């Protein structure tokens, strides 16, 4: 038998295995049926003896060492491959060690040829279920299945503590259609650290983290961690069922953007971050109290550098370990949903870092990026650009967006830096970019990718929000894909943000000359479905906090900040505000420290927080502020030409006329008493909100009484009211229509008519009553002294209340 075994050896293949240069080790390793019997071969570097354990009373079979590097083979009679284990004996430092395990090369691939073909075409949308590391049971044996795409590598191995990081031990098998390498390692459990050892053409050997890894080591370590994402028990079924209705464009959306690592810091100085489980109840309680509908998390995907805030991602399929494990993050998402709060995840498909353990030059070639740096690199970011024309790269990104939606129940995906994807010359000088096939600067491959991504996400999860941060005037960002749009639900209104902040930074004395910065946004307001954002980008890199952007002394800064947020409320579009600005954070934001929560001990900062709380409460209570955000019928100017006063008056309308709100925005620090303004309808107008109220820290110029309109023309409208306009304020009035004479007549008509018979009877009774009274009056009266003093009328019966008279005069 040993002679036959020797003759069956393929020495060229054995040499390739021994020198770790074989891309398809299953050609030789593992079991196979031959004419001579069952042949089993294995490569166990350092092993001195190996046995095949057949079990079930069958005799064990000693394997023959065919190569002293650790290549063993055994041949025994049979025509069916049995279930077997290997027992290897090692001698180290004078000690003997024995290991018993199932042969990794005895298990079939878990990726079908059809899935390979789909991946090659860029349409295997659940590829994250195949690539990466997945605990599973195959043929009754528990272990972990590994798969990675590295089509140009000479050899790929799984390495970790379980094999002493030796790339010779678990060499992966290349699948012919796709270039995916795969291997099932029996006995491995969640928690194991691993990487891929890649031998590139040219024999360069290096380690890479798993592009599809679901968990990663805490920085600065970079190994991937085996984890099981299917063990968490979700309890957010109610939220998921109602999400479509809650996230409809006709519903309020107030987003609280935050960076998890610096929202709050632990009191224990030895700890840098809170765990996801600790943050969840604190954040949910605060967000509910403030009145936000959603939170938007700056990227929580794994990243090596804290200072990147998560925008240079190395682990696209792993929540960062800074704040805990995968299950910890699932707990966070589940808890937020149970509290009725939606979670939007910031996502970065526009670029990735050059870190050597990540995606760059993954298999020895520019696999995820372009080879030409003019196409594959952002000069001013120092990052790499995805090759959106490669189907497998598109599949990686589309599958990743779906992964966060399906595995972590994300309610929205906010895509970072979309403009950098759309333009080939974004951030580049002449000669630093390559034109498209038509000679233009449009990235045709990125456009197709975005359409593909959004159409698939909407097809699979129509209730999930897709939001673009796009800073140019690229058309139809929120247009339907079928109508040549990109298919997003919302676009950040960067134009409004830039104009408005520039306006608010000016001294009120000079704002009149920049009045168009207030009004221009309404020229294009309905060209897209906009989300108004005052985000983290506006409070970093020397820009200062929103409060410190405002002109004037501290009291004026607060008044300006209140009017800014009030105008944001009235402007059409959904809303987003970065953390800390709701209580007027003074210092510029830094990821290295928590927000300055101690500011809330100061009266002004607490009043600002109360103001924002009242503002968001009003937002959710008033349908006019959100129902018709994207319908021109939902907004109407009353007067937008009073640049000399730095004033704007306009209406927000809902589906019903009686939900109409009138806004008066005064961006000057001058009060205007007895200001006459046109109103849309005859009726009563009540001030329901005033940013200048004393409870918010204002001067207290308010309109305490309801204003009834007069039929006096103003602002080209037939009816008007006279109000007191506060300095640096936003005042909001609700509308109630008057009861007209026609309505009163209708009310009279509804009074039931009296029949003639009843009327005659009532007249007869009244006549008899009057006769009785005359008889009583004819009787002699009592002496004067017996007459009691007449009671004085009650105070309420003497005069009408002064307030009532004033109201009737108005």
How would you sum up this structure, described in words?
This protein is α+β, with helices and mostly antiparallel strands. Helix content is 26%, strand content 23%. The protein contains 20 helices and 36 strands. The strands form nine sheets. An eight-stranded parallel barrel has the order 17-18-21-24-25-26-27-28. A six-stranded antiparallel sheet has the order 29-30-31-36-33-34. The longest helix is centred in the last third of the chain and has 23 residues. The chain starts with a helix and ends with a helix. The C terminus is likely disordered.
In short:
26% of the residues lie in helices and 23% in strands. The chain has 810 residues and is α+β, with helices and mostly antiparallel strands.
